[in-house]
């Protein structure tokens, strides 16, 4: 039975919807391509390994990290020391002082100081045969010291080559000198007149090198480095870029169990560089912290001293008035006093006096910030609050205002540097004023609450006579002033105690050290694996994408399953120069395949008919329908069947060339009445095979093929021949073949392996299953077996089996996988 023939019977509507639909992804074809191109995987794996080796050996730049831990003392108090009262009111806790320190460590002002102090804008490298390597400053035999008063070109590599006798050759790039130079003094760019490239020059240590775009000298490293360098490459960066780069490499965390312990980390290309930076950063923070504490505490002590003097006057005046009422009005002994209510009122007014005193201090702090008089700043503890954001923003404001005063002497008010510094000042002011506003809101809410409680408690005093109420009011006033005085006195004592015992409340637990820590990055092993994996995945990805977007027919099983059209045979690849395979190689596997098609054609139309008209078509040109037509006709002719081959592809005649026939007269001449049947029939070297070529290309090929005269022409030929083979036009381009199929007994549709598009079979499949086309079978052309054994249907498919049966088998080489399979089978079959 022909493969697919049995499915024609019993068609139903649901099945029709599936006909012509191919799978989006052919897994079998994809796996075969992976095996076919195995050498690409081996090649890319090798390349990936080599690239990863070069990456790890010559490209990867190690990144190191060092840590420092410090403790923030909780028993001291200063401008930066938390006061728990406001935190309690807000329902907050935590380490507010630690928040400030973190802000300071990451602040621009602090890191800008370190950059200038440690000359971190100077970058040291050395270049080998393949890559450049970052150096620690201490690894260089000389230190690079610039003249900050002179304009310098940044991002301009300066190569220093040792020449002996403490001298170095200074080499500059052949091009790239700029007229836009940087001033480290004002931290801004300035334009200069164009100049020629500075020539190379040899300088000695401590000798100044001067050019239009550079001025520097080399200072000997007091400690001779262990590494001998063939060259040192110096790159200068702007202060701003250096600060931004440093801040991005600093990490600040708090201990999970003790939140007053901070752990500061710094990463970089040099371990010694990260160690020195961390230790210097914390040392400067401790120094600044101590100075700030003394200055702020002195200011606070003076402020509280003045406030106490003022409140003392009010307290003396209030006491004198109270004594006057006692003596003159004799109100020192008021009967029926509600002592419980009076005590409650006294407590409330004491709290109110404390809040009012703090609000007054808060106003002083706010006025100091607004007036930029930071040298007169008092401790926020005088106002009963502490906020890390506020203290950090005030410190930042102080540094920014100083920076602005420096820039204002150089730049105009509308210049970019001034606009940028104003933006930073505005941002810091917003943070500080926001913190003060939050505290003021809390105090106002608490004050309103106390006033309401006082009013409720005072309602019971309205029953007293007027004189007694007068005395009670004077007494309450005295108590409030006294409470304020006591509150200020307590804060003064605290301030004086701090001044007497002031010391840095930052103590280093573990300083940063070079303990030979290994690099933290990059993940060289992971990167190398990723490189190898990427190279290995490249052919896989390309094959996968190719398979996903591949719409060509490559799988015979899928073709039969999708179309449900009978498969008559599979024709192998034709390597000959002409199409006469059956005539030139009668013992070939391809010739045997055509004999199989000849035998299978009878299933399409039955064996009882005396004449067979076999039409051969395809989707588009190039699929081999003419090749199939010629060789099928040759097989029939060689089997003693009188056969004629008609070239009815009038638009693109082909047949005449292989048979060495003149195409001056052909079917087009007969259909137009210019020639008789006998005139267009040509004999071939096969006695039973005649050929009628297409003839000259007519202007109206479709009309000629669909004419009644063409029908009569075919009917006449039926009387003369046993088989009529029609090489018709492709159905994907014109509709001529559909008309000719009405007069054929069998229709062969040629599908070429890895050439025919899947979507092209949609139309012919639908017409077949809608019974618009009958007696249709498929011929699979140009199939090349990769397996070395039959496809699985039990008859010739046009390729060798490797057993010496066909002509091609003498050159057959069994594939490696088949050899392995056969050896395994032989072992188990012993």
From TrEMBL:
Catalytic activity: L-tyrosyl-[protein] + ATP = O-phospho-L-tyrosyl-[protein] + ADP + H(+)
Enzyme class: transferase
EC number: 2.7.10.2
InterPro entries (alphabetical): AAA_dom, Bact_polysacc_biosynth/exp, P-loop_NTPase, Wzc-like_C
Xref: Pfam families: AAA_31
AAA domain sequence ranges: 612-753
Molecular-function annotations in GO: non-membrane spanning protein tyrosine kinase activity
Transmembrane segments: 37-56, 529-549
Keyword Transferase set for record: yes
Annotated protein name in UniProt: non-specific protein-tyrosine kinase
Organism: Chryseobacterium zhengzhouense
């Amino acid at each position: 039975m022909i493969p697919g023939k049995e499915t024609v019977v019993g068609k139903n509507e649901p099945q029709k919807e599936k006909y012509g639909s191919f799978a989006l992804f052919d897994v079998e074809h994809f796996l075969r391509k992976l095996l076919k191109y195995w050498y690409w995987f081996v090649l890319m794996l090798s390349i990936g390994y080599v690239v990863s080796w070069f990456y790890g050996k010559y490209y990867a730049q190690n990144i190191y990290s060092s840590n420092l831990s410090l403790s923030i003392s909780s028993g001291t108090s200063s401008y930066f020391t938390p006061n728990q009262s406001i935190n309690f009111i807000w329902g907050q806790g935590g380490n507010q002082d630690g928040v400030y320190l973190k802000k300071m460590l990451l602040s621009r002002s602090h890191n800008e100081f370190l950059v200038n102090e440690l000359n971190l804008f100077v970058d040291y490298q050395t270049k080998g045969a393949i890559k450049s390597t970052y150096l620690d400053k201490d690894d260089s035999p000389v230190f690079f010291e610039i003249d900050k008063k002179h304009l310098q070109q940044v991002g301009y590599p300066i190569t220093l080559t040792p020449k002996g006798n403490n001298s170095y050759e200074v080499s500059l790039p052949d091009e790239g000198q700029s007229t836009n130079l940087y001033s480290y003094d004002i931290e801004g760019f300035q334009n200069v007149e164009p100049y020629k490239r500075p020539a190379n020059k040899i300088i000695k240590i401590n000798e100044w090198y001067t050019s239009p775009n550079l001025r520097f000298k080399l200072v000997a490293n007091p400690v001779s480095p262990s590494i001998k360098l063939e060259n040192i490459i110096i790159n200068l960066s702007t202060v701003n870029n250096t600060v931004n780069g440093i801040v991005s490499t600093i990490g600040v965390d708090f201990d999970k169990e003790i939140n007053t312990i901070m752990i500061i980390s710094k990463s970089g290309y040099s371990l010694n560089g990260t160690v020195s930076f961390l230790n210097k950063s914390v040392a400067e923070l401790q120094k600044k912290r101590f100075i700030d504490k003394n200055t702020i505490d002195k200011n606070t002590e003076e402020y509280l001293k003045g406030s106490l003097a003022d409140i003392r006057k009010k307290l003396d005046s209030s006491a004198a008035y109270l004594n006057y009422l006692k003596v003159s009005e004799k109100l020192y002994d008021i009967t029926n006093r509600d002592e419980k209510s009076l005590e409650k009122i006294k407590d409330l007014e004491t709290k109110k006096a404390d809040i009012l005193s703090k609000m007054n201090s808060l106003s002083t702090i706010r006025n100091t910030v607004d007036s930029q008089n930071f040298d007169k700043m008092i401790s926020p503890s005088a106002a009963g609050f502490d906020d890390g954001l506020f203290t950090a923003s005030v410190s930042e404001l102080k540094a920014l205002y100083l920076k602005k005063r420096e820039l204002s002497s150089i730049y105009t008010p509308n210049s970019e540097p001034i606009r940028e510094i104003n933006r930073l000042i505005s941002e810091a002011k917003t943070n500080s004023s926001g913190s003060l506003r939050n505290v003021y809101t809390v105090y106002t809410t608490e004050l309103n609450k106390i006033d309401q409680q006082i009013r409720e408690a005072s309602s019971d005093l309205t029953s007293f006579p007027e004189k007694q109420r007068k005395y009670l009011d004077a007494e309450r006033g005295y108590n409030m002033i006294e409470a304020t005085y006591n509150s200020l006195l307590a804060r003064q004592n605290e301030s004086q105690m701090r001044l007497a015992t002031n010391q840095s409340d930052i103590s280093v637990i573990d300083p940063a050290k070079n303990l030979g820590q290994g690099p933290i990055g990059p993940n060289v092993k992971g990167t190398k694996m990723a490189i190898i994996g990427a190279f290995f995945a490249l052919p896989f990805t390309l094959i996968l994408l190719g398979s996903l977007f591949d719409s060509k027919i490559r799988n015979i099983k899928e073709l039969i399953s999708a179309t449900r059209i009978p498969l008559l045979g599979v024709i192998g690849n034709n390597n000959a120069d002409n199409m006469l395979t059956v005539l030139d190689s009668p013992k070939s596997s391809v010739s045997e395949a055509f004999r199989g098609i000849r035998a299978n054609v009878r299933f399409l139309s039955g064996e009882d008919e005396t004449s067979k008209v076999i039409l051969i078509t395809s989707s588009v040109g190039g699929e081999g329908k003419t090749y199939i037509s010629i060789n099928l006709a040759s097989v029939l002719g060689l089997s003693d069947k009188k056969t004629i081959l008609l070239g009815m592809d009038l638009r693109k005649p082909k047949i005449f060339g292989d048979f060495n026939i003149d195409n001056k007269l052909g079917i087009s001449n007969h259909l137009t009445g210019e020639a008789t049947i006998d005139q267009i029939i040509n004999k071939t070297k096969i006695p039973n095979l005649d050929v009628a070529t297409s003839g000259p290309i007519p202007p109206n090929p479709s009309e000629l093929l669909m004419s009644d005269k063409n029908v009569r022409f075919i009917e006449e030929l039926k009387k003369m021949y046993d088989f009529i083979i029609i090489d018709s036009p492709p159905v994907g381009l014109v509709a001529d073949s559909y008309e000719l199929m009405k007069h054929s007994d069998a229709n062969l549709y040629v599908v070429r392996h890895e050439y025919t598009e899947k979507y092209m079979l949609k139309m012919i499949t639908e017409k077949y299953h809608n019974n618009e086309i009958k007696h249709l079978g498929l011929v699979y052309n140009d199939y090349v077996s990769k397996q070395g054994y039959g496809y699985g249907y039990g008859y010739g498919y046009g390729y060798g089996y490797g057993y010496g049966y066909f002509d091609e088998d003498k050159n057959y080489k069994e594939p490696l996988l088949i050899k392995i399979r056969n050896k395994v089978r032989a072992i188990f079959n012993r």
